[in-house]
């Protein structure tokens, strides 16, 4: 009886250990099942960024906006159904989230080289974000893999949980804290705004009504963002929007942050010193950005038997 109990206990411990190992993300998840998966993602991302450098920032943003809404599960890619409304319709994503066609292209190519759909759309988003940053001169990092795809999406959660460009520093800190991210993560990941553009409607109030802004910068932005109309007109988040560099943080120090939430990081608060450090130290920024991207990519992933590997990233199997 004693030996039988020991056997059963050992078996349970083994199964739990096995499940724990399987449920954790790791960089080598596809090494045996499809060793060409990651090189294929890199190739397609490289081609897309070569065609349009702006696409790099768009793909990075897709991963960010995916992870902040119920975890990194590719829910942002799902189109609306009778069961749920797509997160693409949420206020922070509508008419601004882009790159979906590139993700579809990656999925098609990866499934072809792998011989079957073994790579999740969630993992494609995570790897494409990393490869986009690298393609535009930024750091690399080991992307932990093994995420599975959600079977639902939530426009409401996207509206509630994605940081808004109107947020002050305490609101930003709380938004990131809700995702298990700290103040350093907030500042480092905000540095992703070294890439890409924003729409006039999101920074109009800042350039016309706020006082913690360089007057010449405000005047320059007003030339393409009138007080009435023009809400979809774009402006770069920093003056090198297709290069991963420290210009974003240098702008904040000079009161040239485009969004209210950007300048909130350097406005007499607790994040001022880190912004100053990043503005003059590309190595420190790159290192912390990479670490925070790994941390963000680990937000509530679906693993083991939860979720699915979608055949088409736009819809549930």
Average pLDDT over all residues: 93
| Widest sheet, order of strands | 1-2
Shape: globular
Helix content estimate: 40-55%
Strand content: under 5%
Radius of gyration: 21 Å
What is the first-to-last residue Cα distance? 47 Å
Largest sheet: 2 strands, antiparallel
Oligomer: single chain
> Count of helices?
14
Class from secondary-structure proportions: mainly alpha
Q: What is the string of SSEs from the N terminus onward?
A: HHHHHHHHEHHEHHHH
Please sum up the structure shown.
Its EC number is 1.11.1.7. The chain crosses the membrane at residues 6-25. The protein has 317 residues and is an all-alpha fold.
Question: Can you walk me through this structure?
Answer:
50% of the residues lie in helices and 2% in strands. It has helices at residues 2-23, 37-51, 54-67, 100-114, 121-135, 155-161, 169-177, 183-190, 200-209, 215-222, 247-253, 260-263, 272-280, 282-296; strands spanning 197-199, 234-236. The chain is globular, with a radius of gyration of 21 Å. Disulfide bonds join 34-114, 67-72, 121-313, 200-225. Ca(2+) 1 binds at residues 66, 69, 71, 73, 75, 87. Ca(2+) 2 binds at residues 194, 238, 240, 245.
Task: Please specify the SSE layout and strand pairing.
Elements: H1 2-23, H2 37-51, H3 54-67, H4 100-114, H5 121-135, H6 155-161, H7 169-177, H8 183-190, E1 197-199, H9 200-209, H10 215-222, E2 234-236, H11 247-253, H12 260-263, H13 272-280, H14 282-296
Antiparallel strand pairs: 1-2
Helix pairs in contact: 2-4, 2-5, 3-5, 8-14, 9-10, 11-13, 13-14
GO molecular function: heme binding; lactoperoxidase activity; metal ion binding
Cofactor: Ca(2+); heme b
Organism: Forsythia ovata
């Amino acid at each position: 009886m004693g030996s039988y109990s020991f056997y059963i206990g050992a078996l349970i411990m083994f199964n739990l250990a096995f499940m724990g190992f399987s449920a954790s993300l790791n960089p080598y998840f596809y090494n045996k099942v499809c060793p060409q998966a990651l090189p294929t993602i890199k190739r397609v991302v490289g081609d897309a960024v070569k065609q349009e450098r702006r696409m790099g920032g768009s793909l990075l943003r897709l991963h960010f906006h995916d992870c902040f809404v119920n975890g990194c599960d590719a829910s942002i890619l799902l189109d609306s159904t009778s069961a749920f409304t797509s997160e693409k319709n949420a206020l922070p994503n509508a008419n601004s989230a882009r790159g979906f066609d590139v993700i579809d292209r990656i999925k098609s190519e990866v499934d072809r080289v792998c011989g079957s759909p073994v790579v999740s759309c969630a993992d494609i988003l995570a790897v494409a974000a990393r490869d986009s940053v690298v393609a535009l001169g930024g750091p690399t990092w080991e992307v932990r893999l093994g995420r599975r795809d959600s079977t639902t999406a939530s426009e409401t959660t996207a509206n509630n949980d994605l940081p808004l460009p109107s947020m002050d520093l305490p609101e930003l800190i709380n938004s990131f804290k809700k995702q298990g991210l700290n103040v350093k993560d907030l500042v480092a990941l905000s540095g992703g705004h070294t890439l890409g553009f924003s729409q006039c409607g999101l920074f109009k109030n800042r350039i016309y009504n706020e006082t913690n802004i360089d007057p010449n910068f405000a005047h320059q932005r007003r030339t393409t963002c009138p007080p009435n109309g023009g809400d979809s007109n774009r402006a770069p988040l920093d003056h090198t929007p297709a290069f991963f560099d420290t210009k974003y943080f240098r702008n904040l120090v000079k009161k040239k942050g485009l969004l209210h939430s950007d300048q909130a990081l350097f406005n007499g608060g607790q994040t001022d010193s880190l912004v100053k450090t990043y503005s003059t130290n590309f190595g420190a920024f790159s290192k912390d950005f990479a670490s925070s991207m790994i941390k963000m990519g680990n937000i509530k992933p679906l693993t083991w038997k939860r979720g699915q590997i979608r055949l088409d990233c736009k819809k549930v199997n």
